[in-house]
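Hi support team,

I'm opening this ticket because the web form for multi-chain structure prediction keeps timing out on my end. I have pasted the exact lines I submitted so you can reproduce it. The total is 934 residues across two entries, so I didn't expect it to be a heavy job. Is there a limit I'm missing, or should I split the entries? Thanks in advance, R.K.
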Amino acid sequence: MGDLHLLVTIGGRRGAIPGAQVQSVVEIDQVAPVPQAPPHVAGLAALRSRALTVIDTRAAIGLDPAAFDTEGRAAVVDVDGHAYALLVDAVDDVADAQATATLSGATLGAEWDRVAQGYLETAAGPAVLVDIAQLVAGPALRFAAGS
Amino acid sequence: MDDLLAEFVAETREMLAAIEGELVAWEADPGDRARLDAIFRFVHTVKGNCGFFDFPRLEKLSHAAESALAEVRAGQRQPGTYLVNAVLAVIDRITELVQAIEAGKELPATSDERLIAALEPDGEDDCLEVDAPAGHGSDRRAASSPATSRSIRLPVELLDRLMSGISDMVLARNDLARRLRELGHEAGIESSFDRLSTIISDVRDGVSRIRMQRIDHLYSALPRLVRDLSAELGKQVMIDLRDGDVALDREMIELIRDPLTHIIRNAIDHGIERPGDRLAAGKPEVGQLSLSARQAGNRILLAVRDDGRGLDVDRISVKAVAQGIVTRAEIDALSLDRRLALIFEPGLSTAEQVSEISGRGVGMDVVRANLEKVGGLIRVESEPGEGTLFVLELPLTLSIVAALTVACGIHSFAIPQSYIEEIVRGNSPAIGLHELGDSRFVQFRDKRIPAISLDQVLGRGERLGSDCGSFRNKVFIIIRLAKGELFALVVDRVLDNEELVVKPLAPAVMAIGLYAGSTLLDDGNPILMLDIPNIAARHKLISSLATRRVPSSEKAGVTVDEGETVILFTDLAGQRRAMRIAAVNRIQSIDVDAIAYEGGQYRASVDSMILPIAGVDGPLPDTGRVTVLRLSDGAREILYAAQAVDDSATLGSALVPLPDSELLEGTALIEGVITAVVDAHVLFARLADGAPVSRSRTCRLPDGDAWARGFLAPLLSAAGYRVLADGEAEPVDVTIVCKVDADTVLPGTGAIVHIRADREPAHPGDTSIYRYDRAAILAALGRAAGG
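Hello R.K., no limit was hit. The queue was backed up. Here is the completed structure from your submission:
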């Protein structure tokens, strides 16, 4: 027995978002760009009567979003009272799985380490359990956390 | 005051209900620190609240309990059963009294002495006589009568949630409206949608009102503050609080509490003199501090007036120069208002000695900054020896903002209307662009103000080209910051005016520093609201006094009144005309269809008012829009039609009268071209009153009276009077007398209007007019002109 997780693909890798934190999965068709925004903030999108801040999860872990196709779907989450849409390559599945806290000693790569809070086994193989707050904070936080 | 009392009772009851459990627990374990603290907080709060009301018994009781508990908290005293009983007995008595207050009954005639004595450490012996608290809990509940007034207390957070729900509903409705429009008309759906729409608007109004609080709530703490401060400083001050029923967003009330407190502290500390000094100056011994409020559109104007010594403009100026805020030369060029406004500059405090109360120079700049943060403004007027007036202008609510939407490339943004001074098209001949070093300045009217393109702010595109053409198809949004500085933000297009429900931004977007919030437009697209003050500060568009007046070196020669400014325009007949700027309120463009000939006069509807319009004797275009100068004499408005507004200029030479034309005051050489100046006074006399007048009426002010020159003269000019310079020998129509005892009224002075400094007449037969009573002054001028 485990918890529900939303299985997604981020930058070509399998990831999982804790299901309890996902409000909905939406299609992002129109994003209003925000000039001067950090790279992982793709812009604003309207969901019903709310404005969502769209976070490109690929950019949030330091990847070039252009290098990966996206089907334009995003997980809507709430961090500190603000609504975000986490744009991913693809939303794959919902899985009932038990997360394991850490991989002892092994690194997933600096950016993945920062956003990972464990991993879980799925039918398709292991997936990195991501910390949505870290994704939303974006790569800039690396310096603050690393020092 | 009833509201406040009800709140006090409600709050006390609420706290009583909350600590009921604590009381029982404390009784069981008197050493329990957390319970002790909770009970201490209760009596402390009751005591504090009693300060506003006249409840000596409650105050004494809570004070005694507080002292006893404070000793326990300090470890000076051990809590024993006797003390617990005594405290509980006091709390029971407080409950009893509060119930009586709530029911509006006489307070029970029981003596509190014994209860208070029992709290004393040496009262231990008596404590045995104290009644054991009789089952707090069931009895107290049973005794409490149902609340007499039908009001409930709600957590603000719940209200906020409700409010944001309603805002979402409004946005959802707008979205739905858009989709319905796209689908085309369907009568059935449309009417029920309209009904839904109306209901949502009603509910939104209702909820907005829930968020409103009477300004009384802001006032409530002030009498105490004034009493304490004036006692401490050895002054006598009476506070007069008016218009307590004006309602304001409750969040706004919290936000202006500190700024207001600061202004009042300053007024008492620096403004109002000591009783002796006041008597010596011929003023009443007791200083007067008055607060009044009124709503003007969606703004609230809060005025704080004292009758103290006023601001010392000279000392402020000297200080500002000493602090390096402005240079000596700049000071001389500043108007009185601007010089007074220097008190809002950081680091300026004119107090000679730093007192406990104020005068550390960290005051008014913070006040202004805090007000600016919520979209408010502050301005100051002052008269030496007469007092100072601060006017705080606040938005009615924080959540709905009137905004202008603009486009820049593919992006659209919203700019709060409160910042916008004027919108000027780049192709207007009134606009000129200059390069100074790496910066761009726009020449507008007689000012040179810094300009920046929104593209550059957004980090895209080139800086504004000064070469002709590139800025001509842009739009210049002239922005006035709360301090009064101007800058121009250059955008591609102006889209629309909208009322926006602004939502906070995600931290990552906020951190960019360019945006203040986001919102959804009616079409469902998100849009960002620009953080104007931040943009200005980042791009160093403003120093404290960035807007320099352009030196008018090229206009050497005779100057009239330091060169009165006129607006140059082309009238409908194609003639070049000038209008004194004092009469021009603003420039608008209206539809030709809005102009109609009715009742022997041309009239035009503008902003849902119907105003007389002049200058339409020439051919009216069949369709399209006409530029109108909107003229005001302070009370009434009329319009003057024009083909285009060309420029502003300084009236450099004396007018040559045109005896044949009644509507023209005369001609003058303006920038080398002979230009006729429209006689605004005749226009008003004709169109607003119907009474023809042949020449400008003249008005004499008291010699050397700074107030009259600074404050009254503009009003008089706007009303069409020509204000005579000191000693100018001209026929005088009206003479203004500011001193009651003026016995030196010269012959040939025409009608006399007496102006007094005090709000109230000095004696019943006093026919003078209070100097800030604009309506009465204008009316008196009207009568004087008629007689």
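A quick check on our side: Chain B is about 35% helix and 25% strand. Let us know if the file doesn't open in your viewer.
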